[in-house]
Amino acid sequence: MTSLFWSCEQKEELTPPNILWIVSEDNSPIIGAYGDDFATTPTLDSLAAVSVLYTNAFATTPVCAPSRSTLITGMYSNSLGTLPMRSPYPIPDYMRFFPNYLRDAGYYTTNNSKKDYNTVDQPECWDESSNKATYLNRQPGQPFFHVQNIFITHESQIHDSIPWGELKHDPTKVPMPPYHPRTKDMEHDWAQYYDRIQQMDSQVAGILADLKKSGEAENTIVFYYSDHGGVLGRSKRFMYESGLHIPLIINFPEKYKHLAPSAAGSKIDRLVNFVDFGPTVLSLAGVTVPDYMQGKPFLGSQQAEPKQYVHAYRGRMDERIDLVRSVRDKQFRYIRNYMPHKPNGQHLYYLWLARSMPSWEKAFKNGELNDVQSRFWLPRPAEELYDVAKDPDNINNLAADPAYANTLMELRNENLKWVKEISDANFLPEPMTAEISEVQPVFDYVRGKDFRMDYVIETADLASMRDPSALPELIKRLDDPNAAVRYWAVTGTMILEDKSPETKAALLKMAKDPSASVRLAVAEALYKSGVKKEALDICVSELQSPRAITRVYAANVLEEFGMDALPAKQALEQSLTDSVGQAISETPKAINHILDKLN
User: Fold this and answer.
1) Which of 40, 443, 481, 529 is 20 to 30 A from 260, comparing alpha carbons?
2) 424 within domain boundaries
3) pLDDT over 90 (residue 581)
4) Is position 194 within any domain?
5) What's the pLDDT tens digit per position in 55-113?
6) Quick one: 491 exposed, middle or buried, by C-beta within 10 A (0-12, 13-18, 19+)?
7) Is residue 275 located within the same domain as residue 342?
8) How many CB atoms lie within 10 A of CB 132?
9) Which residues pair with 146 in a beta bridge?
10) Are both 344 and 379 inside the same structural domain?
11) What is the distance between the alpha carbons of residues 263 and 50, in angstroms, rounded to a whole number?
12) What is the rounded distance in angstroms from the CA atom of residue 33 to the CA atom of residue 86?
């Protein structure tokens, strides 16, 4: 292991480096060093001047918990089945959180203090994990890995509005992406967000000062990054640059500069994302990266070849159901919407706590928006393609442009290849995942010799492309023995708005399907075909499910009914008070929103 740290310049063998992660929450590269002149970030700008700045670093998910699941495991959370927000689903026993391997190698591992790993915790991976955890408690000479989380930029920090006159950044001058209207509330929230970025920068200064005071700055490789983009609407939670592109600045002290990919003060355009971060730390520490990890180191002795693509994924966000995948190369972002009938602007309780969101929604309902600003509230295309170099805000969809047909096909094929390669478990509807997870990790289940995960993914792909020629095959698959295939076949008939008598008859036969996920997909399809009573009966029944996630799915279907959901009001109210089953927080969020509209 010592040969890894041999410095030719110093002619000495070095001990493994300390590694410090400074992780701010919910912020895109709204930093001076990344070219944002409106940002007030002197600490990070100075750090970047003596560090390596990555221009193509990305979260794997545009929200915290599934991103942190990927960070701590070195595995794609959609492969593990840990993508749905705040899900409790287990992973295989042999998969250890990566700090465990550092502890085995003699490192002192500390976390201050957010975890949010979206799976069963492994607290033994930390020597200390709390809001008081510090590397100062280690043994003399012991290397450390420390994570310091910064909360001040979190989405919640714009929920309580600072008075207009007390904002440090002028709301009337704040830069704003073209998809946002300049409402007073939107201007205010953007300005307050810039204020929070400034506060975050000050906190980074304090962390670096503490490191210097400890005498360990010369022995420590420092990572600064954000856990995803955000926080105003269409950033956090959404599959655009604003939600996925993150700042990443890595500082190498003099004695470890031989581990840097380029000179201090340089910028590097290598594509990296969160699945690579844990393996990279292990590589820098001289610890062998486990073979099962899907991430590849981008630094250290085990550094892999640069990636041509990085991948990202969106599943259930809080109480709203969705499924999106994305591929990014150095120029283009491809987005594949597997539920294109659902708009980006599905109501989310937590997102709507920011005043900017209701103001945007109100402007849309009042007809005050242009086409770009309105798009968030409308059904989506199956595919989106953006030339990020020319269009960093992702507003000019090139998917239908013949000039980009080859690029579209390349990235479409790469996405389909990847979701099959990793056996993307979140193509299973989540009530199925919950049921499977009571017996075994879904990661293992979808790799079982008798389970046709490729066929499930192919059906989802067929169902969501809005291609009328796919309808006969989708109808054929309504009888498939695999419930996930049936789920996607039903969803496909709905996306294609097939209201033929034959399809209605087939769906009515499926109202008693053994799978709750299929029954609820049938309910939504029937309602959109005008068969309202049977659709309502299914939803009312599923609101009594002992599984909270099934009730969430039922509420999502009823959301589509509008005032036609009124006969389900009593069942909705009962589902809030029923203590049977797992009480996840998403259930009341989804149900109360419907009740508010019905009252």
Assistant:
1) 40
2) no
3) no
4) yes
5) 999 999 999 999 999 999 999 999 999 999 998 899 999 999 999 999 999 999 999 99
6) buried
7) no
8) 10
9) 20, 110
10) yes
11) 9
12) 33
Q: Are 27 and 153 in contact (CB under 8 A)?
A: yes
User: What confidence score (pLDDT) does residue 3 get?
Assistant: 36
Run of H or E including 46: helix 42-49
Whether residues 275 and 398 share a domain: the answer is no
Sign of CA pseudo-dihedral 190, 191, 196, 202: positive
Residues shown for the chain: 599
The token pair that represents 81 in the structure block? 């089945």
Q: Among 376, 409, 442, which residue terminates a domain?
A: 409
Q: Please list the residues that pair with 251 across neighbouring strands.
A: 222
Cβ proximity of 534 and 504 under 8 Å: no
Neighbours of 39 (CB within 10 A): 22
Spell out the SS3 assignment of 128-168: EECCCCCHHHCCCCCCEEEEEEECCCCHHHHCCCCCHHHCC
* Conformation bin of residue 45: beta by default, left when phi > 0, alpha when psi is -120 to 50: alpha
Quick check: is 316 in a domain? Answer: no
What spatial distance separates the first Cα and last Cα of the chain, rounded to whole Å?
Answer: 67
Q: What is the CATH number of the domain that holds 299?
A: 3.40.720.10
- Residue ranges of the alpha helices (H) in 543-598? 548-559, 569-577, 586-598
Task: Classify residue 481 by burial, with Cβ atoms within 10 Å: 0-12, 13-18, 19+.
Answer: exposed
Average pLDDT on 171-186 reads 98
Which helix or strand (DSSP H or E) is residue 405 part of?
A: helix 405-421
Say if CB 303 and CB 297 are below 8 A apart. Answer: yes
Do 488 and 442 belong to one domain? yes
Catalytic residue check, 64 = yes
Cα distance between residue 103 and residue 111, in whole Å:
13
State the pTM of this model: 0.97
CA–CA distance, 575 with 590 (Å, rounded to integer): 11
Q: Hunting for tokens 């030339």 — which residue is that?
A: 387
* 265 and 334 share one domain: no
Residue 446's CATH number:
1.25.10.10
The residue whose two tokens read 């007030």 is 40
Q: Give the number of C-alpha atoms closer than 13 A to the C-alpha of residue 402, restricted to the C-beta side.
A: 0
Other C-beta atoms lying within 10 Å of the C-beta of residue 269: 9
Q: What is the pLDDT of residue 345?
A: 98
Residues 440 and 549 both lie in one domain = yes
Element (H, E) at 71: helix 64-73
Q: Give the pair of three-digit tokens for residue 101.
A: 């391997």
**Do residue 465 and residue 404 come from a single domain?**
no
Single residue among 374, 409, 444 that ends a domain in this structure: 409
- What are the tens digits of pLDDT across the range 481-491? 999 999 999 99
Domain-located, residue 62: yes
Block residue for tokens 């714009």: 158
Q: What is the spatial distance between Cα 289 and Cα 547, in angstroms, rounded to a whole number?
A: 37
User: Which helix (H) or strand (E) is 383 found in, with range?
Assistant: strand 383-387
Catalytic residue among 8, 64, 125, 539: 64
| The total number of structural domains that make up the chain | 3
- Roughly what angle, to the nearest 10 degrees, separates helices 483-495 and 516-528? 10
Domain housing 395: 326-409
**Cβ atoms within 10 A of the Cβ of 563, count?**
7
Q: Are strands 383-387 and 332-337 parallel, antiparallel or unpaired?
A: antiparallel
Q: What is the pLDDT of residue 8?
A: 47
Contacts of 570 (CB under 8 A, 6+ apart): none
Residues 14 and 69 reside in one and the same domain: yes
